[in-house]
């Protein structure tokens, strides 16, 4: 006979056996078996107490430590389940709130924007510091320059610019995707600045169990995460 921390020939402690059973159950999840529960713990504990050496019984400290170990593992498991439930609930709430964005314009990072059939296309340029002369270039999807204009001196921060939707000769261009690029002189060197563009929200969908809410934007092939939205236009 052996104590809980010295189980005869097996050489396995109670906690070792508990971990071993837990691992075996996890490996056989395909059979429909669940993880160890409190009943399994009590069953193992009872067997260990029945087999312990009466001349070397387990001490109160060891008993409390083993019970505390199980309680900690069990508590962590329950906490993980609660977090998963909370995450699912928060994702659903986000999707419900994001549904109000359908039909509205949102500002997202990236130089590629979508021009409607009528009018031009706005964009936002982020300047790390003031510039004396901000230049904006408009390119088509092939990267060909179709228009450019001078915005003039601008202060540091977000600067809204708007292309009128026409080429260099004043001809209105068709609807489609265009790129907005901005540059200026910083400390005597020509520098490209980050640009964000506006797009209309077509629909809202949930991510693949990762807690993300995605927006399908008009003219965009891939959805954009709600967390990436920088600004929401007026309804």
Automatic annotation (TrEMBL):
Residue span(s) of domain FlgD/Vpr Ig-like: 117-184
Residue ranges of every copy of the FlgD Tudor-like domain listed in the record: 93-229
InterPro entries: FlgD, FlgD/Vpr_Ig-like, FLgD_Tudor
Keywords: Bacterial flagellum biogenesis, Cell projection, Cilium, Flagellum
Keyword Repeat: no
GO biological process, one term: bacterial-type flagellum organization
Family: Belongs to the FlgD family.
Function noted in UniProt: Required for flagellar hook formation. May act as a scaffolding protein.
NCBIfam families: PRK06655.1-1
Name this polypeptide is given: Basal-body rod modification protein FlgD
Annotated organism of origin: Vibrio agarilyticus
Origin organism lineage: Bacteria, Pseudomonadati, Pseudomonadota, Gammaproteobacteria, Vibrionales
């Amino acid at each position: 006979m052996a104590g809980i921390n010295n189980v005869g020939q097996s050489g396995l402690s109670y906690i070792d056996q508990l971990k071993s059973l837990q691992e075996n159950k996890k490996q056989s999840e395909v059979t429909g078996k669940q993880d160890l529960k409190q009943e399994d713990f009590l069953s193992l504990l009872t067997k260990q107490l029945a087999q312990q050496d009466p001349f070397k019984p387990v001490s109160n400290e060891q008993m409390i430590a083993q019970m505390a170990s199980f309680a900690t593992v069990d508590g962590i498991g329950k906490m993980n389940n609660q977090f998963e439930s909370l995450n699912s609930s928060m994702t659903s709430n986000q999707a419900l709130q994001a549904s109000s964005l359908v039909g509205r314009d949102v500002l997202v990072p990236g130089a590629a924007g979508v021009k409607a059939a009528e009018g031009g296309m706005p964009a936002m340029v982020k300047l790390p510091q003031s510039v004396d002369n901000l230049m904006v270039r408009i390119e088509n999807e092939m990267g060909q320059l179709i228009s450019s204009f001078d915005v003039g001196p601008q202060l540091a921060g977000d600067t809204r610019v708007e292309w009128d939707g026409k080429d260099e000769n004043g001809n209105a261009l068709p609807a489609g995707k265009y790129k907005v690029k901005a540059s200026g002189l910083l400390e005597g060197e020509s520098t490209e600045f980050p640009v964000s563009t506006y797009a209309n929200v077509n629909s809202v969908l949930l991510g693949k169990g990762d807690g993300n809410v995605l927006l399908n934007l008009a003219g965009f092939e891939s959805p954009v995460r709600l967390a990436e939205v920088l600004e929401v236009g007026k309804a």
